[in-house]
Amino acid sequence: MKNTFVTKEKIEEIAKEFPTPFHIYDEKGIRENARRLYKAFSWNKGFREYFAVKATPNPYILKVLQEEGCGVDCSSLTELMMSEACDFKGTDIMFSSNDTPPADFIKAKNLGAIINLDDFTHIEYLEKLCGLPKRICCRFNPGGHFEIETQIMDNPGEAKYGFTKEQLFEGFKILKAKGVEEFGIHAFLASNTTTNAYYPKLARILFQLAVDLKNETGADIKFINLSGGVGIAYEPDKPQNDIEVIGEGVKRAFEEILVPAGMGDVAIFTELGRYMLAPYGHLVTKCIHQKHTYKEYIGVDACACNLMRPAIYGSYHHITVLGKENEPCDHKYDVTGSLCENNDKFAVDRMLPEINIGDYLVIHDAGAHGFSMGYNYNGKLRSAELLLCEDGSVKQIRRAETPQDYFATFDFTGIFDNYDYNV
Fold first, then answer.
1. What domains are there in the chain, each with its CATH number?
2. Which residue of 195, 210, 243, 356 has the fewest C-beta atoms within 10 A of its own C-beta?
3. Could you tell me where the DSSP H helices lie in 343-387?
Protein backbone atom coordinates (compact mmCIF):
# COMPACT_ATOMS: atom_id res chain seq x y z
CA MET A 1 0.00 0.00 0.00
CA LYS A 2 1.32 3.42 -0.95
CA ASN A 3 -0.52 6.47 0.28
CA THR A 4 -1.30 9.44 -1.93
CA PHE A 5 -0.72 13.01 -0.80
CA VAL A 6 -3.98 14.10 -2.48
CA THR A 7 -7.54 12.89 -1.96
CA LYS A 8 -10.24 12.19 -4.52
CA GLU A 9 -12.05 15.33 -3.39
CA LYS A 10 -8.93 17.45 -3.83
CA ILE A 11 -8.29 16.11 -7.32
CA GLU A 12 -11.91 16.68 -8.33
CA GLU A 13 -11.51 20.27 -7.18
CA ILE A 14 -8.19 20.72 -9.00
CA ALA A 15 -9.48 19.12 -12.22
CA LYS A 16 -12.14 21.81 -12.57
CA GLU A 17 -9.34 24.26 -13.37
CA PHE A 18 -6.56 21.98 -14.61
CA PRO A 19 -7.81 19.04 -16.68
CA THR A 20 -6.05 15.69 -16.43
CA PRO A 21 -3.48 14.43 -17.08
CA PHE A 22 -1.13 16.48 -14.94
CA HIS A 23 1.88 16.03 -12.69
CA ILE A 24 1.50 17.32 -9.15
CA TYR A 25 4.24 17.70 -6.54
CA ASP A 26 4.03 17.82 -2.74
CA GLU A 27 5.95 20.82 -1.41
CA LYS A 28 5.68 19.71 2.22
CA GLY A 29 7.06 16.25 1.44
CA ILE A 30 9.93 17.68 -0.62
CA ARG A 31 11.00 20.04 2.15
CA GLU A 32 10.78 17.41 4.88
CA ASN A 33 12.84 14.96 2.83
CA ALA A 34 15.55 17.55 2.15
CA ARG A 35 15.77 18.26 5.88
CA ARG A 36 16.13 14.54 6.64
CA LEU A 37 19.03 14.33 4.20
CA TYR A 38 20.83 17.30 5.73
CA LYS A 39 20.29 15.95 9.24
CA ALA A 40 21.75 12.56 8.21
CA PHE A 41 24.95 14.25 7.00
CA SER A 42 25.10 17.04 9.58
CA TRP A 43 28.29 15.47 10.99
CA ASN A 44 30.15 16.74 7.90
CA LYS A 45 30.69 20.48 8.15
CA GLY A 46 30.85 21.05 4.39
CA PHE A 47 28.04 18.71 3.31
CA ARG A 48 25.85 19.85 0.46
CA GLU A 49 23.25 18.30 -1.79
CA TYR A 50 23.42 19.29 -5.46
CA PHE A 51 20.00 18.35 -6.80
CA ALA A 52 20.10 16.61 -10.19
CA VAL A 53 18.18 19.09 -12.32
CA LYS A 54 17.60 16.50 -15.05
CA ALA A 55 15.27 14.62 -12.70
CA THR A 56 12.73 17.44 -12.36
CA PRO A 57 13.74 20.53 -14.33
CA ASN A 58 11.26 23.09 -13.03
CA PRO A 59 12.32 26.44 -11.54
CA TYR A 60 9.64 26.30 -8.85
CA ILE A 61 11.00 22.98 -7.63
CA LEU A 62 14.56 24.32 -7.78
CA LYS A 63 13.56 27.34 -5.68
CA VAL A 64 11.99 25.10 -3.02
CA LEU A 65 15.21 23.08 -2.80
CA GLN A 66 17.32 26.23 -2.85
CA GLU A 67 15.45 27.44 0.22
CA GLU A 68 16.40 24.14 1.90
CA GLY A 69 20.10 24.76 1.24
CA CYS A 70 20.56 22.67 -1.92
CA GLY A 71 22.71 23.48 -4.88
CA VAL A 72 22.12 22.12 -8.39
CA ASP A 73 23.78 19.49 -10.55
CA CYS A 74 23.54 20.47 -14.22
CA SER A 75 24.40 18.47 -17.31
CA SER A 76 23.52 20.82 -20.19
CA LEU A 77 23.47 24.43 -21.32
CA THR A 78 19.74 24.86 -20.72
CA GLU A 79 19.99 23.40 -17.21
CA LEU A 80 22.76 25.88 -16.49
CA MET A 81 20.61 28.70 -17.83
CA MET A 82 17.62 27.63 -15.72
CA SER A 83 19.81 27.47 -12.62
CA GLU A 84 21.28 30.89 -13.33
CA ALA A 85 17.76 32.32 -13.73
CA CYS A 86 16.90 30.83 -10.32
CA ASP A 87 19.85 32.72 -8.80
CA PHE A 88 22.16 29.78 -8.24
CA LYS A 89 25.66 31.20 -8.40
CA GLY A 90 29.25 29.98 -8.60
CA THR A 91 29.83 26.94 -6.44
CA ASP A 92 26.06 26.51 -5.98
CA ILE A 93 26.33 24.76 -9.35
CA MET A 94 28.02 21.46 -10.15
CA PHE A 95 28.41 20.85 -13.89
CA SER A 96 28.61 17.11 -14.60
CA SER A 97 28.45 16.45 -18.31
CA ASN A 98 29.85 14.07 -20.93
CA ASP A 99 30.59 14.45 -24.63
CA THR A 100 30.21 18.12 -23.76
CA PRO A 101 29.51 20.77 -26.44
CA PRO A 102 31.77 23.85 -26.33
CA ALA A 103 28.98 26.27 -25.39
CA ASP A 104 28.13 24.23 -22.29
CA PHE A 105 31.70 24.33 -20.96
CA ILE A 106 31.95 28.06 -21.66
CA LYS A 107 28.70 28.79 -19.84
CA ALA A 108 29.71 26.69 -16.84
CA LYS A 109 33.10 28.42 -16.66
CA ASN A 110 31.51 31.88 -16.92
CA LEU A 111 29.07 31.04 -14.13
CA GLY A 112 31.92 29.94 -11.88
CA ALA A 113 30.34 26.49 -11.58
CA ILE A 114 32.35 23.53 -10.32
CA ILE A 115 33.21 21.70 -13.54
CA ASN A 116 33.31 17.91 -13.21
CA LEU A 117 35.48 16.59 -16.04
CA ASP A 118 34.30 13.29 -17.50
CA ASP A 119 37.34 12.41 -19.61
CA PHE A 120 41.12 12.75 -19.59
CA THR A 121 41.10 14.47 -23.00
CA HIS A 122 38.79 17.18 -21.63
CA ILE A 123 41.70 18.67 -19.67
CA GLU A 124 43.37 19.94 -22.82
CA TYR A 125 40.01 20.62 -24.49
CA LEU A 126 38.77 22.84 -21.66
CA GLU A 127 42.11 24.64 -21.33
CA LYS A 128 42.15 25.59 -25.02
CA LEU A 129 38.43 26.43 -25.07
CA CYS A 130 38.14 28.78 -22.09
CA GLY A 131 40.93 28.07 -19.63
CA LEU A 132 41.10 25.87 -16.55
CA PRO A 133 39.43 27.09 -13.34
CA LYS A 134 41.23 27.12 -10.00
CA ARG A 135 38.85 24.47 -8.60
CA ILE A 136 37.96 21.38 -10.63
CA CYS A 137 36.50 17.92 -10.16
CA CYS A 138 37.21 14.67 -12.03
CA ARG A 139 34.89 11.71 -12.47
CA PHE A 140 36.26 8.28 -11.62
CA ASN A 141 35.30 4.97 -13.24
CA PRO A 142 36.93 1.93 -11.60
CA GLY A 143 35.86 -0.42 -14.40
CA GLY A 144 34.70 -4.00 -13.93
CA HIS A 145 31.61 -4.82 -11.87
CA PHE A 146 30.50 -2.96 -8.77
CA GLU A 147 29.48 -5.41 -6.05
CA ILE A 148 28.02 -5.19 -2.58
CA GLU A 149 28.30 -8.38 -0.55
CA THR A 150 28.84 -10.47 -3.74
CA GLN A 151 25.74 -8.96 -5.39
CA ILE A 152 26.51 -7.21 -8.68
CA MET A 153 24.89 -3.77 -8.51
CA ASP A 154 26.04 -2.44 -11.88
CA ASN A 155 28.77 -2.68 -14.51
CA PRO A 156 30.91 0.51 -14.55
CA GLY A 157 33.25 -1.10 -17.07
CA GLU A 158 30.46 -0.84 -19.67
CA ALA A 159 29.62 2.77 -18.81
CA LYS A 160 30.80 5.62 -21.02
CA TYR A 161 31.61 7.87 -18.06
CA GLY A 162 34.74 8.82 -16.20
CA PHE A 163 38.54 8.49 -15.97
CA THR A 164 40.33 5.20 -15.37
CA LYS A 165 42.42 5.11 -12.20
CA GLU A 166 45.65 5.60 -14.15
CA GLN A 167 44.15 8.53 -16.07
CA LEU A 168 42.93 10.10 -12.84
CA PHE A 169 46.38 10.14 -11.24
CA GLU A 170 47.99 11.47 -14.40
CA GLY A 171 45.17 14.01 -14.81
CA PHE A 172 45.62 15.37 -11.29
CA LYS A 173 49.33 15.83 -11.89
CA ILE A 174 48.72 17.69 -15.16
CA LEU A 175 45.97 19.88 -13.68
CA LYS A 176 48.11 20.77 -10.67
CA ALA A 177 51.03 21.67 -12.94
CA LYS A 178 48.71 23.90 -14.97
CA GLY A 179 47.66 25.90 -11.92
CA VAL A 180 44.56 24.16 -10.57
CA GLU A 181 44.60 24.66 -6.82
CA GLU A 182 41.58 22.75 -5.44
CA PHE A 183 40.27 19.34 -6.43
CA GLY A 184 37.23 17.15 -6.09
CA ILE A 185 36.48 13.51 -6.90
CA HIS A 186 33.17 12.18 -8.23
CA ALA A 187 31.80 8.73 -9.07
CA PHE A 188 28.45 7.17 -9.92
CA LEU A 189 28.66 3.39 -9.89
CA ALA A 190 25.06 2.15 -9.59
CA SER A 191 21.59 3.51 -10.29
CA ASN A 192 18.51 3.50 -8.04
CA THR A 193 19.98 1.30 -5.33
CA THR A 194 17.68 0.31 -2.51
CA THR A 195 20.35 -0.85 -0.10
CA ASN A 196 21.74 1.21 2.75
CA ALA A 197 25.18 -0.20 1.90
CA TYR A 198 25.65 1.58 -1.45
CA TYR A 199 26.86 5.01 -0.33
CA PRO A 200 29.11 3.63 2.44
CA LYS A 201 30.74 1.18 0.00
CA LEU A 202 31.21 3.90 -2.63
CA ALA A 203 32.51 6.27 0.05
CA ARG A 204 35.22 3.81 1.10
CA ILE A 205 36.39 3.49 -2.51
CA LEU A 206 36.52 7.25 -3.03
CA PHE A 207 37.97 8.06 0.39
CA GLN A 208 40.89 5.68 -0.11
CA LEU A 209 41.35 7.01 -3.64
CA ALA A 210 41.47 10.56 -2.26
CA VAL A 211 44.17 9.59 0.26
CA ASP A 212 46.24 7.93 -2.46
CA LEU A 213 45.83 10.90 -4.80
CA LYS A 214 46.89 13.35 -2.13
CA ASN A 215 49.93 11.29 -1.21
CA GLU A 216 51.09 10.77 -4.79
CA THR A 217 50.19 14.09 -6.41
CA GLY A 218 50.03 16.52 -3.49
CA ALA A 219 46.60 17.67 -4.68
CA ASP A 220 44.49 19.68 -2.24
CA ILE A 221 41.26 17.66 -2.27
CA LYS A 222 38.42 19.82 -0.98
CA PHE A 223 35.40 17.62 -1.60
CA ILE A 224 34.26 14.13 -2.51
CA ASN A 225 31.03 13.87 -4.49
CA LEU A 226 29.11 10.62 -3.95
CA SER A 227 26.80 11.62 -6.81
CA GLY A 228 23.36 9.94 -7.00
CA GLY A 229 22.34 6.31 -7.01
CA VAL A 230 20.44 6.24 -3.72
CA GLY A 231 17.01 5.36 -4.98
CA ILE A 232 13.52 4.47 -3.87
CA ALA A 233 11.52 1.26 -3.79
CA TYR A 234 8.78 1.65 -6.38
CA GLU A 235 7.00 -1.51 -5.21
CA PRO A 236 4.91 -1.00 -2.06
CA ASP A 237 6.10 -4.21 -0.39
CA LYS A 238 9.82 -3.45 -0.70
CA PRO A 239 11.83 -1.67 2.05
CA GLN A 240 12.89 1.92 1.46
CA ASN A 241 16.38 3.28 2.05
CA ASP A 242 17.03 4.73 5.50
CA ILE A 243 19.00 7.94 4.98
CA GLU A 244 20.07 8.10 8.64
CA VAL A 245 21.63 4.63 8.40
CA ILE A 246 23.28 5.62 5.12
CA GLY A 247 24.68 8.80 6.65
CA GLU A 248 26.09 6.86 9.60
CA GLY A 249 27.73 4.35 7.26
CA VAL A 250 29.46 7.13 5.33
CA LYS A 251 30.52 8.75 8.62
CA ARG A 252 32.21 5.54 9.77
CA ALA A 253 34.14 5.30 6.50
CA PHE A 254 35.09 8.98 6.81
CA GLU A 255 36.43 8.52 10.36
CA GLU A 256 38.30 5.34 9.51
CA ILE A 257 39.95 6.50 6.26
CA LEU A 258 40.04 10.29 5.85
CA VAL A 259 40.45 11.50 9.41
CA PRO A 260 43.61 9.42 10.14
CA ALA A 261 45.08 10.70 6.85
CA GLY A 262 44.67 14.30 7.99
CA MET A 263 41.76 14.90 5.60
CA GLY A 264 38.98 15.41 8.14
CA ASP A 265 38.02 18.76 6.61
CA VAL A 266 36.99 17.26 3.24
CA ALA A 267 33.39 18.13 2.34
CA ILE A 268 30.91 15.47 1.24
CA PHE A 269 28.58 16.27 -1.66
CA THR A 270 25.62 14.34 -3.05
CA GLU A 271 23.72 14.70 -6.33
CA LEU A 272 20.40 13.05 -5.65
CA GLY A 273 17.43 13.32 -7.97
CA ARG A 274 15.14 10.32 -7.66
CA TYR A 275 15.56 10.10 -3.88
CA MET A 276 14.77 13.80 -3.48
CA LEU A 277 11.70 14.03 -5.71
CA ALA A 278 10.25 10.76 -6.99
CA PRO A 279 7.93 9.93 -4.06
CA TYR A 280 6.65 13.49 -3.95
CA GLY A 281 5.23 13.59 -7.46
CA HIS A 282 2.07 11.95 -8.82
CA LEU A 283 0.89 11.62 -12.39
CA VAL A 284 -2.87 12.04 -12.15
CA THR A 285 -4.95 10.65 -14.99
CA LYS A 286 -8.56 9.71 -15.67
CA CYS A 287 -10.18 6.58 -17.06
CA ILE A 288 -11.79 7.50 -20.39
CA HIS A 289 -12.25 4.06 -22.00
CA GLN A 290 -12.67 0.39 -21.19
CA LYS A 291 -11.92 -2.40 -23.64
CA HIS A 292 -12.94 -6.05 -23.31
CA THR A 293 -11.10 -8.34 -25.73
CA TYR A 294 -8.55 -11.00 -24.87
CA LYS A 295 -7.71 -8.94 -21.82
CA GLU A 296 -9.39 -6.22 -19.79
CA TYR A 297 -8.02 -2.80 -20.67
CA ILE A 298 -8.41 0.53 -18.90
CA GLY A 299 -7.68 3.44 -21.23
CA VAL A 300 -6.55 6.63 -19.50
CA ASP A 301 -5.93 10.15 -20.77
CA ALA A 302 -2.20 9.99 -19.96
CA CYS A 303 0.29 8.02 -22.02
CA ALA A 304 3.98 7.12 -22.14
CA CYS A 305 4.69 10.68 -23.27
CA ASN A 306 3.78 11.71 -19.71
CA LEU A 307 5.72 8.93 -17.99
CA MET A 308 7.88 6.72 -20.17
CA ARG A 309 9.62 4.54 -17.56
CA PRO A 310 7.07 1.68 -17.70
CA ALA A 311 7.17 1.66 -21.50
CA ILE A 312 10.94 1.71 -22.03
CA TYR A 313 12.14 -0.11 -18.91
CA GLY A 314 9.16 -2.20 -17.89
CA SER A 315 9.32 -0.30 -14.60
CA TYR A 316 6.72 -0.77 -11.89
CA HIS A 317 4.78 2.29 -10.75
CA HIS A 318 2.13 1.78 -8.11
CA ILE A 319 -1.40 2.87 -9.02
CA THR A 320 -4.12 4.08 -6.66
CA VAL A 321 -7.72 4.45 -7.81
CA LEU A 322 -8.84 7.50 -5.87
CA GLY A 323 -11.85 6.90 -3.65
CA LYS A 324 -11.39 3.13 -3.87
CA GLU A 325 -8.34 2.75 -1.63
CA ASN A 326 -10.14 0.33 0.69
CA GLU A 327 -11.91 -1.73 -1.96
CA PRO A 328 -10.62 -5.20 -2.88
CA CYS A 329 -8.12 -5.45 -5.74
CA ASP A 330 -10.08 -8.19 -7.51
CA HIS A 331 -9.93 -7.02 -11.14
CA LYS A 332 -6.98 -7.68 -13.45
CA TYR A 333 -6.25 -4.86 -15.89
CA ASP A 334 -3.75 -3.53 -18.37
CA VAL A 335 -3.73 0.24 -17.86
CA THR A 336 -2.91 1.85 -21.19
CA GLY A 337 -2.41 5.15 -22.95
CA SER A 338 -3.34 6.06 -26.51
CA LEU A 339 0.00 5.94 -28.33
CA CYS A 340 0.38 3.82 -31.44
CA GLU A 341 2.81 1.60 -29.54
CA ASN A 342 1.88 -1.59 -27.71
CA ASN A 343 4.32 -0.84 -24.90
CA ASP A 344 2.28 2.25 -23.94
CA LYS A 345 1.12 0.63 -20.71
CA PHE A 346 1.40 1.89 -17.15
CA ALA A 347 0.54 -1.55 -15.79
CA VAL A 348 0.18 -5.08 -17.17
CA ASP A 349 -2.00 -7.70 -15.47
CA ARG A 350 -2.31 -5.41 -12.44
CA MET A 351 -4.81 -6.33 -9.76
CA LEU A 352 -6.84 -3.21 -8.96
CA PRO A 353 -10.30 -2.31 -7.67
CA GLU A 354 -13.02 -2.22 -10.30
CA ILE A 355 -12.42 0.89 -12.41
CA ASN A 356 -15.22 2.88 -13.98
CA ILE A 357 -15.07 5.54 -16.65
CA GLY A 358 -14.41 8.86 -14.95
CA ASP A 359 -12.36 7.40 -12.10
CA TYR A 360 -9.14 9.21 -11.26
CA LEU A 361 -5.94 7.17 -11.06
CA VAL A 362 -2.80 8.30 -9.27
CA ILE A 363 0.44 6.87 -10.68
CA HIS A 364 2.96 7.04 -7.85
CA ASP A 365 6.64 8.00 -7.70
CA ALA A 366 6.51 10.15 -10.82
CA GLY A 367 8.25 13.15 -9.26
CA ALA A 368 11.64 12.41 -10.84
CA HIS A 369 12.39 11.26 -14.39
CA GLY A 370 8.68 11.62 -15.09
CA PHE A 371 7.70 14.85 -16.80
CA SER A 372 11.36 15.49 -17.64
CA MET A 373 11.54 12.48 -19.96
CA GLY A 374 8.39 13.46 -21.83
CA TYR A 375 8.19 13.74 -25.58
CA ASN A 376 5.77 14.56 -28.42
CA TYR A 377 5.37 11.28 -30.31
CA ASN A 378 1.98 11.01 -32.06
CA GLY A 379 1.71 14.77 -31.62
CA LYS A 380 0.98 14.33 -27.93
CA LEU A 381 1.32 17.48 -25.87
CA ARG A 382 3.13 17.71 -22.56
CA SER A 383 0.84 18.08 -19.57
CA ALA A 384 0.77 20.73 -16.86
CA GLU A 385 2.83 20.58 -13.70
CA LEU A 386 1.22 21.65 -10.43
CA LEU A 387 2.56 22.26 -6.93
CA LEU A 388 0.53 21.34 -3.86
CA CYS A 389 1.75 24.07 -1.54
CA GLU A 390 2.29 23.62 2.17
CA ASP A 391 -0.84 25.67 2.93
CA GLY A 392 -3.00 23.33 0.82
CA SER A 393 -3.33 25.66 -2.15
CA VAL A 394 -2.39 24.53 -5.65
CA LYS A 395 -0.15 26.49 -8.00
CA GLN A 396 0.38 25.83 -11.68
CA ILE A 397 4.16 25.72 -12.17
CA ARG A 398 4.12 24.79 -15.84
CA ARG A 399 1.14 25.13 -18.12
CA ALA A 400 0.08 22.36 -20.44
CA GLU A 401 1.37 22.58 -24.00
CA THR A 402 -0.99 23.66 -26.74
CA PRO A 403 -1.10 22.82 -30.46
CA GLN A 404 0.33 26.29 -31.05
CA ASP A 405 3.41 25.26 -29.03
CA TYR A 406 3.76 22.08 -31.07
CA PHE A 407 3.67 23.95 -34.38
CA ALA A 408 5.75 26.94 -33.23
CA THR A 409 9.11 25.63 -34.43
CA PHE A 410 8.01 24.96 -38.00
CA ASP A 411 9.44 27.50 -40.43
CA PHE A 412 6.73 27.25 -43.10
CA THR A 413 6.05 30.97 -43.12
CA GLY A 414 2.41 31.80 -42.66
CA ILE A 415 1.06 28.26 -42.97
CA PHE A 416 -0.46 28.26 -39.46
CA ASP A 417 -1.10 31.99 -39.16
CA ASN A 418 -4.83 31.73 -39.76
CA TYR A 419 -5.36 28.19 -38.58
CA ASP A 420 -8.37 27.70 -36.28
CA TYR A 421 -7.02 25.91 -33.19
CA ASN A 422 -10.43 25.60 -31.56
CA VAL A 423 -11.60 22.00 -31.32
1. 27-278 (3.20.20.10), 279-407 (2.40.37.10)
2. 356
3. none
- Indicate the pTM of the whole model: 0.95
Q: What angle do CA 311, 314, 320 make, to 5 degrees?
A: 85
Mean pLDDT (the chain) is: 95
Helices and strands: H and E segment counts in the chain: 12, 19
Dihedral angle over CA of 229, 52, 25, 319, nearest 10: -30
> Does residue 421 carry a pLDDT above 80?
no
The answer to whether 184 and 224 are in contact (CB under 8 A) is yes
Instruction: For 20-111, list the strands marked E by DSSP.
Output: 22-26, 48-52, 71-74, 93-96
Lowest mean pLDDT among 104-113, 186-195, 354-363: 186-195
Helix (H) or strand (E) holding 212: helix 198-217
Alpha helix (H) residue ranges in 331-411: 403-407
pLDDT, average across residues 273-281:
97
Residues designated catalytic: 340
Number of CB atoms found within 10 A of residue 381's CB: 14
Burial tier of 85 (Cβ tally within 10 Å: 0-12, 13-18, 19+) = exposed
Q: Average pLDDT of 101-127?
A: 98
